[in-house]
Amino acid sequence: MLNPDGVYLGNYRCSLMGFDLNRHWLDPSPWAHPTLHGVKQLIIQMYNDPKTSLEFYIDIHAHSTMMNGFMYGNIFEDEERFQRQAVFPKLLCQNAEDFSYSSTSFNRDAVKAGTGRRFLGGLLDHTSYCYTLEVSFYSYIIGGTTAAVPYTEEAYMKLGRNVARTFLDYYRLNPMVEKVAIPMPRLRPGAEPEASGEMRPAGDTANLAYRRCSAADLINITV
């Protein structure tokens, strides 16, 4: 929670001082944007620690106009990296009925340059994935239907649990589902693989199915 003072006053975008905090990641002020400044320094410290593997950054926001949950991701010149970042939102789409992959988009709009997703996507290396998870203020539509289902506190919490389930699927730690072929990131130079599991190189995939989503579907994306 990076905007406690603003939220306390009832703001959903601006801080106590009137700043849209998710536009100031490039150069946050320790005085005007103290939460951003502190988190940015922590992330940089973690990234520079060879003992730490910083693989995901997910910035969570509410959306005032669109329906469902969806994600924003980054565009990279490296096609393999660009494809691999589509895996997590596609897995989440399988776990959460209110998450829409069709509303998920990957961009590098100039107006979003100051967001956490864009800034950290440029700072961190190819082993890290940065997303914005947007969730509607209002409601969601389940695939195959036209009726809008209002979001409740429990529905928001359920989406959070489904994000956690998706991490289990991504790291192949969920014993309840069939294993999915996921291109795992390469290790950073000098980093050692965890003793508890095998680190597969990017692109090392098999033709395994995951519920309604094939391995090929996980890799082939349309922007």
UniProtKB/TrEMBL annotation:
GO terms for molecular function: metallocarboxypeptidase activity; zinc ion binding. Its cofactor is Zn(2+). Transmembrane segments: none annotated. One of its GO terms (biological process) is proteolysis. Gene3D superfamilies: Zn peptidases. InterPro entries: Cytosolic_carboxypeptidase, Peptidase_M14. Residues 1-171 form the Peptidase M14 domain. It comes from the Eukaryota. The active site is at 134 (proton donor/acceptor). PANTHER family: CYTOSOLIC CARBOXYPEPTIDASE, CYTOSOLIC CARBOXYPEPTIDASE 6. Belongs to the peptidase M14 family. This is BEN domain containing 5. It comes from Bos mutus grunniens. The lineage of its organism: Eukaryota, Metazoa, Chordata, Craniata, Vertebrata.
